[in-house]
Design goal:
- Helices cover 38% and strands 15% of the residues.
- Strands 1-2-11-8-13-6-5-3-4 form a nine-stranded mixed sheet. It has a four-stranded antiparallel sheet with strand order 7-12-9-10.
- The protein is globular.
- The two termini are 47 Å apart.
- InterPro entries: Cupin_8, JmjC_dom.
- This is JmjC domain-containing protein.
């Protein structure tokens, strides 16, 4: 393999400019990437033998096991054709596993998910190792990144991000894409959203002399709200002051230009409990992989063009067609694309003060169209939900309202393991099916850009986007 790379990227063929410029020794920098990926892949595949053994226990999966075993063996082989062999066998395993996932709607056993991850790691290495010429480097880097992204979506392992880092510099710069701007304010049929946001019954901390610094904010928040387990909106930039994201992330075209080749998980449609959406929602909800560029083109741009008129022509509680709803929901985009962390400042000062120095435990991004819905549920962590662009309607039910939410109704659609998901369509409840829900008391809030809603652990919350929207949440 080293001889082949020497032939491809030797001194005579090394370019002199751009990201693919030569190293000081005259060799093309991409020549080192296949070996670095091979080393990383070999480490990432350390448990593949156990995965193959588990797959082999099921006769219907033996073909997958054999393909994965042959592919992983090719990764560590010194044969000149090892990359081609690895790609062929890994592609066979990938196709069979993807068909299995589509058929079952989830991974039937942990070993099947692990096998899919392994197939993507192998395909990433084989893609760059088989790069035939300097002109193909950019396409190979993009294809390999997408394989590693698919693996990351399945498991979130940091070593995959390290592997992406080996090839990121060789991804060609995309031409500027025009995608539109997520709204800084949302016009809901002429209704003043600032009035709605302040009239929902939830307290709002506003910037003042008492909250001049983040330390002041943390002290006031801890004493007045955190210790009392009371939801509150930290409004108008109290914890988002200085966030470049408040402006930069509104531009979905810029997002597609910078990161449009990256793969993300997308929920299409809406979860339905048999409420007003009916078959339009529950029968069409699905998950898929799209690049961020495809997500912008297929969902965000059309939603930006459509939603203002939809809101003016329809009542506040109406929703767009389920097929037009797309959501990158609860995704670890910061771990996948660490550069995005430059645009925000996680509320570590507040989190450390409140949880004994453990800080922020997990960050998720929520990027979607108008009309996305997260069903009523509670989390096992304290939570800040921060609105970056667009607007969201949030409905909260205190812990003492749990007896009225039917979450423990066997067969009603709740999460029977944790009892943390309410089966009721809260804005259009079926009170014949869920009669106790009529007694449940809730509070409302609308989040605008720069607002951060504190949701204490165990407090039930339902979220609906009022516009194409970008949010971040921090569990602490």
């Amino acid at each position: 393999m080293a001889d082949v790379l020497d032939d491809l990227f030797g001194d005579d063929e090394a370019p002199t400019t751009t990201a693919s410029q030569s190293n000081d020794d005259g060799a093309h920098p991409f020549r080192d990437v296949p070996q670095r990926l091979r080393d990383a892949a070999s480490e990432a595949l350390s448990s593949v033998h156990a995965t193959v053994a588990e797959l082999s226990k099921r006769p219907e999966w033996v073909r997958i096991a054999n393909a994965l075993a042959a592919a992983s063996a090719a990764v560590v082989s010194s044969d000149a054709d090892s990359a081609s062999a690895a790609a062929e066998h890994a592609a066979c395993a990938e196709a069979a596993l993807w068909e299995l996932l589509q058929e079952r709607k989830q991974w039937p056993e942990p070993c099947t998910r692990e096998a899919f991850i392994a197939s993507q790691v192998i395909l990433a290495w084989a893609t760059v190792a088989r790069c035939a010429s300097e002109a193909d480097v950019g396409a190979a880097a993009v294809a390999a990144t997408r394989h590693l992204d698919r693996a990351f979506v399945m498991c979130g392992r940091p070593e995959l991000v390290v592997m992406i880092g080996f090839i990121e510099a060789f991804v060609p710069q995309r031409e500027a894409v025009s995608g539109g701007m997520l709204p800084a304010r949302c016009d809901m049929g002429g209704v003043d959203v600032d009035t709605i946001a302040s009239a929902g019954g939830i307290a709002r901390m506003q910037p003042s002399e008492e909250t001049a610094t983040l330390g002041d904010v943390a002290a006031t928040f801890e004493a007045a709200y955190f210790r009392k387990r009371t939801p509150v909106v930290l409004a108008n930039g109290l914890i988002t002051k200085g966030w470049a994201a408040l402006e930069a992330w509104r531009d979905v075209g810029a997002l597609a230009t910078a990161h449009g080749h990256r793969i993300v998980p997308v929920e299409v449609g809406r979860h339905s409990h048999g409420g007003h959406d009916g078959a339009d929602s529950s029968s069409s909800w699905r998950e898929c992989f799209l690049t961020l560029g495809e997500f912008v083109d297929q969902f965000l741009r059309p939603s930006l063009q459509r939603f203002p008129e939809d809101l003016k022509a329809s009542p506040r509680g109406s929703l767009p067609p389920a097929a037009a709803v797309g959501y990158v929901a609860q995704h670890g985009l910061f771990e996948q694309i660490p550069k995005l962390l430059r645009d925000i400042r996680p509320p570590a000062v507040i989190a450390n003060r409140c949880n004994g120095g453990r800080g922020v435990l997990k960050m998720n991004t929520w990027l979607g169209t108008h009309g996305t819905v997260t069903p009523l549920h509670y989390d096992s962590y304290d939570n800040f939900l921060v609105q970056v662009a667009g607007a969201k309607y949030v409905r909260l039910y205190a812990v003492d309202q749990t007896p009225f939410l039917h979450a423990d109704d066997a067969g009603a659609g709740g999460n029977l393991a944790q009892r943390n998901i309410c089966p009721v369509d809260v804005e259009h409840p079926d009170l014949e099916r869920f009669p106790k829900f009529a007694e449940a008391v809730h509070t409302d809030v609308v989040l605008l850009p720069g607002d951060a809603l504190f949701i204490p652990q165990g407090v039930w919350h339902y979220v609906r986007s009022l516009a194409p929207s970008f949010s971040v949440n921090f569990w602490f």
